[in-house]
Amino acid sequence: MTTQPRYLKPSKAGNVFHGMVSWLTRHGVSLWGSRVLYVRGRNSGEWRTNPVNLLEHGGERYLVAPRGHTQWVRNLRAAGQGRLRLGNRYEDFTAVELSDEEKLPVLRAYLRKWAWEVGAFVGSLRADSPERELRAAAPGFPAFRIVTGH
Question: What NCBIfam families does this protein map onto (predicted)?
Fold first, then answer.
């Protein structure tokens, strides 16, 4: 039996919120670590944008997809690289997708920082959820380590 990857479609209110966050971030106002992600479309090759929360944890930086296997996740997997924007500053990066096991501390840190914002997308999962619950949920939350300076 094949199961579909977890994906939560954004609501109209979510689209409005994303639009506001993107506008602020493009104009140099980062809300709790927000950036605008630029990634080439896997079919069109055109730049696609999406606001994301850039997580700094353990000396590394990560992108986590709280809505699951979204279009930006699929595009980033295909491209392997992208660009983050804050104001007029652009930063090119290579993306390294984390294994489910590698995600556990990253998910916990992400939930600690942004559960208030992404709570509608994560169900009952919390930063203090038992390890077994995080492990069971990990496949539904793609995460990437951001590598710069090549």
Answer: hi_GC_TIGR00026
Range(s) of the domain holding residue 78: 32-147
CATH number where 89 lies: 2.30.110.10
φ, ψ for residue 88, nearest 5 deg: -95, 5
pTM, 2 dp: 0.83
99: exposed, middle or buried (Cβ count in 10 Å: 0-12, 13-18, 19+): exposed
Over residues 4-43, the pLDDT tens digits come to 676 656 666 555 566 666 666 666 666 667 899 999 999 9
In a 13 Å sphere around the CA of 108, the CA atoms on its Cβ side amount to 14
62-73 tens-digit pLDDT: 999 988 999 999
103 three-class SS: helix
